[in-house]
Amino acid sequence: MPENYHTRLDAAGIRPSVQRVAVYSYLCEKRNHPTVETVYDALSPSYPTLSRTTIYNTLKLFEEKHLVQSIQIEDDKLRYDADMSQHLHFKCEKCGHIFDIFDDRELPLFTAQCNKLLPAGSKILKVQTNIWGICADCGKKSSDN
Q1: CA-to-CA dists, residue 16 to 32, 47, 55, 73, angstroms
Q2: pLDDT 10s per residue in the chain (145 long)?
Q3: Facing residues of 90 across strands?
Q4: Beta strands in the chain (DSSP E)
Q5: Residues whose CB falls within 8 Å of the CB of residue 137, separated by 6 or more in sequence, listed in order
Q6: Residue 68 DSSP symbol
Q7: Whole-angstrom distance, CA of residue 7 vs CA of residue 23
Q8: Alpha-helical segments (H) within 31-128
Q9: Alpha-carbon distance 22 to 43, whole Å?
Q10: What integer pLDDT is reported at residue 34 of this predicted model?
């Protein structure tokens, strides 16, 4: 569906170059919350002129245009997510996998509770919550040993 990605970039006011479409399609299709390095490693064999700087600048532009969000779930690196809907992130401390958590009923209540904690007259623009723990697969592996 490259035309769909072209259309999304164009609608956001971004010139849909071949490299930008490749980066955006990777983010939309893989859903692996990649770092700049992960995107580079995945795309550079197919796009030899692609640089880490180009990927970084492209992701920064996408974030400014609200096509992706950055996630700081680790101290030393940013990850990127093309899913802009309200959701939480859960990172397994054993395998490193990052899971999206969606709940159409509880998350709006959580945001409403956060809103109550703000100083009067303040407004929430974005809520980003990260949770760390052990995923079910890793938990099962350690209980099997």
Answers
A1: 22, 15, 14, 29
A2: 456 999 999 999 999 999 999 999 999 999 899 999 999 999 999 999 999 999 999 999 999 999 999 999 887 889 999 998 888 899 999 999 999 888 888 888 888 888 889 999 998 887 788 899 999 999 988 776 5
A3: 99, 131
A4: 69-71, 79-81, 88-92, 98-101, 130-133
A5: 95
A6: -
A7: 14
A8: 36-43, 52-64, 106-117
A9: 8
A10: 96
Instruction: Find, among 72, 133, 55, 69, the residue nearest to 97 by Cα.
Output: 133
- SS3 at position 90: strand
- What distance lies between CA 129 and its chain's CA centroid? 12
The CB density around residue 102, as the number of other CB atoms within 10 Å, is 11
Query: Alpha-carbon distance 82 to 68, whole Å?
Result: 4
Question: What are the structure tokens assigned to 100, written together?
Answer: 């999206």
How many residues are there in the chain?
145
Inter-residue contact 82 to 70 (CB < 8 Å): no
Q: Tokens for 41, please give them.
A: 């490693």
Contact present, 68 and 23 (Cβ < 8 Å): no
